[in-house]
Amino acid sequence: MARLNLLRRDFYNYEQFIPFANDTTVYNYTRNLDGAFTIPERFFPMFIYNNKPSYIKKGIATYFHLQDIDTPFTYKGFNPSTCQWDSSFEAIKQSAPNGFEPEMNDSIKREFESYVKFCAENGIQLIFVYPPYYHEYLQMITGLPEMYKYYKTLASRYQIPIVDCMDDPISYDKKYFFDAKHLNLDGSLLYSTSLAQKLAGYMKQEKGLYIAGNSRK
Q1: 34 is in which domain, residue-wise?
Q2: Is 75 exposed, middle or buried (0-12, 13-18, 19+ CB in 10 A)?
Q3: What is the CA radius of gyration of the chain?
Q4: Given Cys at both, which of 44, 76, 122, 185 links 80, Cβ 3.0 to 4.6 Å?
Q5: d(Cα 196, Cα 33) in Å, to the nearest integer?
């Protein structure tokens, strides 16, 4: 049985962190990664954009609310994919024919629990959401019950509702995914509508704040 290592040593998708290169939290979490920001990149704002003219162009276009023709359409930061189902899931099945077990890293768990506690202490109501995955992919995750138990324990401790979308009908149809873990545009539209309806069932207005109702979990 394979173990799914969720800890990357490379600075994946570092471009999205460029505007926050000198942020203390970003620095603490990325300084030991391969490709971490250098000292000049952190402390000289324009140095980090050296040899990146496309980023400068996009930044100027965004500042003036212009749509860069080279930039994919996004809505509030979300870039929907029109791609259809690819072959990557077949490679996953071949590499882990007996399934895989995700590794739950202790340091990540501590940080997550610290965040949950912070929200509870500051009156910030959380709602846990399990998003849809392609159903065959979920069946390969042997450690799924343990993950459910972990989140359910936290949810019970802090009175956090859980919205489970893993078993939604779209999870059984490839036409809504472009790979086993990511919805395409059609799937995203259906999921967003479904999730909004489910969240509405938990929410009520009280003193100007959104307070979550009781979870069915």
Answers
A1: 1-71
A2: exposed
A3: 20
A4: 185
A5: 36
User: 10 - beta bridge partners?
Assistant: 34
Q: Are 34 and 9 in contact (CB under 8 A)?
A: yes
Q: What is the pLDDT along the chain (217 residues), one digit of tens a residue?
A: 444 444 567 888 888 898 899 898 888 888 888 999 999 999 887 888 888 888 888 778 877 877 655 556 666 777 778 889 988 899 888 888 888 887 777 878 888 999 999 999 999 989 999 999 999 999 998 888 888 999 999 999 999 999 999 888 999 999 999 999 999 999 999 999 999 988 887 776 443 444 443 333 4
Residues 28 and 123 in one domain: no
The residue with tokens 């996953």 is 92
Structure token digits, residue 138: 């979920």
**Whole-angstrom distance, CA of residue 208 vs CA of residue 205:** 6
Q: What is the pTM of this model?
A: 0.71
Do 52 and 9 lie in a common domain?
Answer: yes
Tokens of residue 95, six digits? 């590499």
Shared domain check, 92 and 156 = yes
Looking at residue 177, the DSSP 8-state letter turns out to be E
CA angle 150, 167, 193 (to 5 degrees): 105
**Phi/psi at 214 (5° precision):** -75, 145
